[in-house]
Amino acid sequence: MEKRSGGSRWNRGTATPPGEAEIKGWLYKWANYIIGYQKRWFVLYNGLLSYYRTQAEMSHTCQGTMTMHGETIITEDSRNFVVSNGATQTWHLRASTEVDRQRWVKALELAKAKAIKMLELDMTTCEELIRKHGTSLQRALGELESLHAQAGTEGNDAMTVAAKVPSHLKTVSERAILFRITCNAMIKASSDYVDLATNQGRKWQRLLQHERDQRNQFEEMVMALAKQLSHKEESVKVHASSPFQAPPVTGVAKTNSSILTESKSDEGELVDAHVEGHEPKSTSLDFVVHECHKLSFTVDSLPATVSSSSIGMRH
After folding, report:
1. What are the structural domain ranges in the chain?
2. pLDDT digits over 128-168, tens only?
3. Is 93 helix (H, G, I), strand (E, B) or coil?
4. Which of 69, 82, 254, 279 has the highest count of CB atoms within 10 angstroms of its CB?
5. C-alpha to C-alpha distance for 306 and 88, rounded to whole angstroms
6. Nearest-5° angle of CA 16, CA 19, CA 22?
7. 164-184: per-residue pLDDT in tens?
8. Where are its TM segments located (predicted)?
9. What is the Cα–Cα distance from 80 to 100, expressed in whole angstroms?
10. pLDDT class for 28, splitting at 50, 70, 90?
11. CATH class of segment(s) 23-114
């Protein structure tokens, strides 16, 4: 739920700042996933950032207010930025243009620095007032004690001393009231300053923890890369130092090798035959017939008892 407040630092009874605002204009504020961004009128004045539905509502209804002295301003992209107090309020805002977003972020940063300076100034002022009113109160108490001492002294007119007591008591009471008011203001300013310091300390702790986590991740990544590089270097050294070895011959490679060997031996035999001078009878044949395999005979030289069938068998 958004924090709604009709009052502010300038006037607890009205939502309208009396003077000129440091910056004002339309911004889009994120509501929820159903509605999305809604157009709202924002006003930054005296360290307070307030927003309204329309400009006409500034006189009677303020939708939300956030003090700037302890806020965190984060720029998300060219148009979006976030304003958060680190506790209960976080506003996701969107400007119409990048220039408008820069203008708002710059004004909010200046207002934040100014609010912190004003808080320190308030503490200094409260300290001076406490010193001043404390001295006055001590003086009034001293005068009252003097009257009491005079009343107890013999020879003094008791009625005269008693007549002075009421006025001194009134003075002491007034100065005591002023001292109490100043002390309460100092306590309030000190409490605000302590809250601011505590929130800033938590933010710095989160930032420091985030930086440590990132550093640990980077160190782990560097170590992993160094191990991979070392492993690659060792592999390269091992391959460089070992002699080259031919890969083992597989079954297919063996078959191809034997075929090539047999074809080479056949070619060698043919070459030997050519060298010995045994030329083939006819070059049109697909194979070579050597002289030793030829049959040289005629029909007249055969005996009469040999028939043609025996000649076929003889072949």
Report:
1. 23-114, 116-216
2. 888 888 888 888 888 777 777 766 665 556 666 667 767 77
3. strand
4. 69
5. 131
6. 95
7. 767 777 877 888 888 888 888
8. none
9. 10
10. very high
11. mainly beta
Measure the CA–CA gap between 244 and 283, rounded to whole angstroms. Answer: 49
Helix axes 98-152, 158-241, angle to 10 degrees: 140
Distance CA 44, CA 160 (A): 60
d(Cα 186, Cα 121) in Å, to the nearest integer? 11
Q: What is the DSSP letter of 94?
A: E
What's the angle, vertex CA 93, arms to CA 48 and CA 32, rounded to 5?
Answer: 115
What's 291's DSSP letter? G
Return d(Cα 155, Cα 163) in angstroms, integer.
Answer: 16
Question: How far is 49 from 44, CA to CA, in rounded Å?
Answer: 5
Dist. CA 227–CA 186, nearest whole Å: 61
Distance CA 107, CA 21 (A): 11
- pLDDT for 15 equals 46
Both structure tokens of 295: 């049959």
Residues 232 and 295: their CA atoms lie apart, in Å, by: 75
The burial of 222, by beta-carbon neighbours within 10 Å (0-12 exposed, 13-18 middle, 19 or more buried), is given as exposed
* Spatial CB neighbours of 21, under 8 Å, sequence gap ≥ 6: 43, 44, 45
Neighbours of 171 (CB within 10 A): 17
Q: Is the pTM of this model over 0.90?
A: no
Give the tokens for residue 263: 């074809």
DSSP code per residue over 100-156: HHHHHHHHHHHHHHHHHHHHHHHHHHHHHHHHHHHHHHHHHHHHHHHHHHHHHSTTS
DSSP string, 184-209: HHHHHHHHHHHHHHHHHHHHHHHHHH
The residue count for the chain? 315
Find, among 105, 106, 271, 126, the residue nearest to 187 by Cα. Answer: 126
